[in-house]
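Request: Give me one sample?
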Amino acid sequence: MEMELRKYGVHCIQGSRQFSAVSNVAEMNTVDEAHVSVRFKHGVHTIYLFVDALAPFSAVTQELLDLLRERYPSGLTTSVAPPKRTPVPPDAKLAYGVLTVPNDPSRGWRRLKVGEDEEYNPAKCGLKNNSIVAFAFLDDGDDGDDVLFEVEWPKEDDELYEQGG
């Protein structure tokens, strides 16, 4: 199945239906079997991108950083309580993580090995459609071995259910 997709993978047109989450994107690309959908997570944000499964991770990082700078110029909301915002540095380096146990976020994240210079591609890293990948910003000189992936998952509000009852 092939569909047209705008540059950042968040506007997609399939048949006569259009799904739109972001405006002001530039060019159209074609999505095919060589692309995979990835949900990148940081703080309260989930960024859904179609990425070329055979392109080096450095290209994925550049696309993600371009999107973050465009959509979140004042930074990402890392935490709601207590409020915490993370700016996107101009020379940002990212670390990536995947769930230690798929479908169980309570078990934490493990570092995704993307190669010394991010030369591995998403397919080599084992990413498939709808993969969940956390990202964190690395400080200068940080090798990233002890990266903390800050992801806030939606929580059930027990009080809301009790009031409705």
